[in-house]
Amino acid sequence: MANIASNVMTEDFNSSIAGSNLYNNELIGCVAIYNVLSQSKTISSAKAMLIIPLMCHNGFLSYINRANTDLKSIEQLVIRKPELVSNFNERFYSLMLNSINSISILNSINVIEFSENNIKISEKKDFYSIEQTSKLGLRAKKIIAASPTVAKLLEDDVENLYLQLRVKL
Name one Pfam family in it (predicted). Predict the structure, then answer.
């Protein structure tokens, strides 16, 4: 009986945090930004603000991590799967503080550095080692797997990215 109650409580807890700040926390944001940056080498601050709203959407992660998905641009994503970006503006603003905090944390521990309006990985230190990847959890592993595709999607002009994702500034 105790196991049933425990399972129900765990399921309720997991479903209740799926949209909360506990689920989309700064550690997940740091993992997402760090891994996209490790693919891109340098990225503008404006593009960095798009990473967490993309990566913290379970449907988006599931779609781009499929073996048969080959996305080359944000336009292609919008055409193929508009439901994955239909509420992007809301996600962008609801996760804005998370994005800023994650960037700030990475900067304060010297993992990233700013040069003009760009962010790059600092040569001084890594955020985590490859051996630690298995300890980050399934969600972090999905984010890490999606990072090359997200880095490729963010290669477009920042103005076009914000336009295609319908971010209202």
Answer: MC3
Q: How many CA atoms within 13 Å lie on the side-chain side of 89?
A: 7
Q: How many whole angstroms from its chain centre is CA 64? A: 12
Q: Where are the alpha helices (DSSP H) in 65-120?
A: 74-80, 88-94, 96-108
Domain borders along the chain are 34-164
Return the DSSP state at 164. H
Rg of the chain over CA atoms, in angstroms?
Answer: 16
Q: To which H or E segment does residue 4 belong?
A: helix 2-17
Can you tell me the distance from the alpha carbon of 34 to that of 150, in angstroms, rounded to the nearest whole number?
12
The label of the residue with tokens 């920042």 reads 158
80's tokens = 């193929």
| Position 148, amino acid | P
Tokens standing for 91? 């996600």
Rounded mean pLDDT, 152-167: 96
Q: What is the pLDDT of residues 10-69, one digit of tens each?
A: 344 344 334 444 456 888 999 999 999 999 989 999 999 999 999 999 999 999 999 899
Indicate the residue type of 12: D
Residue pLDDT, tens place only, 79-89: 999 999 999 99
Q: What is d(CA 161, CA 109) in angstroms, rounded to the nearest whole number? A: 29
